[in-house]
């Protein structure tokens, strides 16, 4: 007998069956086993696409495994499982049913904590998309809502997914505004789609959610931005987590996944429009919304490397989750494991990890598929006006935070000859209060003005 309670012979039989049908040690050459690798992803959380939707559409992981299988004499099969949030991925990982998963920074910490609690440890092995200021999360209200700033949320009902990155943004933003997130607002713990419906029905006064829900609702005319997460000026990101047992037993498979993720990231950088359209087809999201986040000058920066700034941000997230009693202590340094992504990159890793996100620029997407970027918002507006009905979408970075937003959904300020866009009315109001003579103007009026920024 052994600590499992099974006779040794029975245990050996059970282990052999597990190795044949699922996870196990790396295969030797000539072994004819079939191995299934299960990947949990969030198709509509579109800054995870390089480890999920886009990667699946491109087939790069399957290609990498086919090459590996030829060497090992193994047939690898990939099972993709789609979820709305990171919580069910963590549940399936700790149950041994998912090998590799992708989720946001707050869910990653819960993933780490649950893995340790259940003696099924997980490790953070790469990043998908990030925003160094926190712009991937947004609080929105109904288009006709009288709410103008975070302070107006006192006593209101706010929908979010508790334990998500968007929930973290909500908690921190309320605290900075002097509002107790547990006592001064009524938080509704809802899936993103449920929260979106609640906002539309009026049963929620505001919605705090992660990419791509705020942009989708704004694009559809069903919401307006109340708070830009980038105002926190704290990094937020999504990453790839793996069961430690799987990584230990099948390091070559994990490295194949990370090589495929790197290829998918390169594809997104090289062909951002094609990538956005592929994700849109797979998810049913409007391409214009996907491009807002994942485009050449989108809100998300895609880079698989585990940058020190992101690891530091993860450590700062722990107290927020602890205060909500969602985790205890989390050893972030033990959770982060960059060995596999370093091996996947090779000698290029040091240069890649030192690469910084470029500053956002205004961008125009035309119906013929072409895109153009501009130095100033005023130059973009002139191009939009000249292009007329040929415009598919136009994006501008917020004047204060740099968060890209739809030009026609932005709040515009005229300051002398300058035209300045803001994601929120509160951001525009703060600017006009500090600049006498500056005033907000409708988008149509901004298009008709002549000026320079």
TrEMBL record:
Pfam families from the UniProt entry: NMT1 (PF09084)
Provenance organism: Streptomyces lavendulocolor
Every SsuA/THI5-like domain range: 124-275
Signal peptide bounds: none
PANTHER family registered for this protein in UniProt: ABC TRANSPORTER SUBSTRATE-BINDING PROTEIN, ALIPHATIC SULFONATES-BINDING PROTEIN-RELATED
Name this protein carries in UniProt: ABC transporter substrate-binding protein
């Amino acid at each position: 007998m052994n600590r499992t309670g099974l006779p040794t012979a029975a245990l050996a039989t059970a282990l052999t069956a597990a190795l044949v049908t699922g996870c196990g040690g790396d295969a030797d050459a000539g072994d004819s086993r079939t191995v299934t690798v299960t990947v949990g992803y969030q198709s509509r959380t579109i800054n995870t696409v390089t480890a999920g939707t886009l990667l699946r559409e491109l087939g790069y992981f399957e290609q990498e495994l086919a090459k590996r299988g030829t060497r090992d004499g193994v047939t690898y099969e990939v099972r993709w499982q789609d979820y709305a949030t990171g919580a069910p991925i963590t549940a399936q990982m700790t149950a041994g049913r998912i090998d590799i998963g992708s989720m946001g920074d707050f869910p990653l910490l819960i993933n780490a904590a649950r893995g340790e609690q259940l003696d099924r440890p997980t490790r953070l092995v790469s990043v998908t998309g990030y925003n160094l200021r926190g712009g991937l999360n947004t609080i929105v209200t109904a288009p006709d809502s009288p709410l103008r700033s975070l302070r107006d949320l006192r006593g209101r009902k706010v929908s979010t997914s508790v334990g998500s990155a968007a929930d973290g943004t909500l908690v921190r933003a309320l605290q900075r505004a002097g509002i107790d997130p547990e006592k001064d607002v009524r938080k509704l713990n809802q899936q993103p789609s449920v929260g979106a419906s609640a906002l539309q029905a009026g049963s929620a006064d505001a919605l705090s959610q992660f990419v791509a829900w705020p942009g989708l609702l704004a694009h559809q005319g069903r919401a307006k931005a109340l708070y830009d997460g980038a105002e926190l000026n704290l990094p937020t990101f999504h990453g790839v987590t793996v069961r430690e047992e799987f990584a230990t037993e099948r390091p070559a498979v994990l490295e194949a996944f990370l090589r495929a993720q790197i290829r998918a990231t390169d594809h997104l950088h090289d062909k951002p429009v094609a990538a956005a359209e592929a994700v849109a087809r797979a998810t049913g999201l409007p391409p214009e919304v996907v491009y807002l986040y994942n485009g050449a000058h989108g809100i998300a920066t895609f880079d698989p490397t585990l940058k020190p700034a992101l690891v530091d941000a993860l450590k700062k997230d722990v107290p927020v989750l602890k205060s909500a009693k969602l985790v205890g202590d989390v050893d972030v340094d033990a959770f982060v494991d960059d060995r596999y992504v370093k091996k996947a990159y090779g000698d290029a890793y040091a240069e890649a990890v030192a690469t910084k996100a470029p500053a956002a620029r205004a961008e125009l997407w035309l119906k013929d598929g072409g895109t153009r970027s501009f130095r100033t918002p005023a130059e973009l507006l002139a191009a939009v006006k000249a292009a007329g009905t040929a415009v598919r979408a136009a994006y501008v970075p917020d004047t204060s935070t740099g968060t890209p937003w739809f030009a026609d959904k932005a709040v515009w300020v005229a300051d002398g000859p300058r035209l300045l866009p803001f994601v929120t009315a509160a951001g525009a109001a703060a600017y006009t209060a500090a600049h006498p003579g500056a005033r907000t103007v409708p988008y149509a009026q901004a298009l008709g003005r002549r000026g320079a920024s």
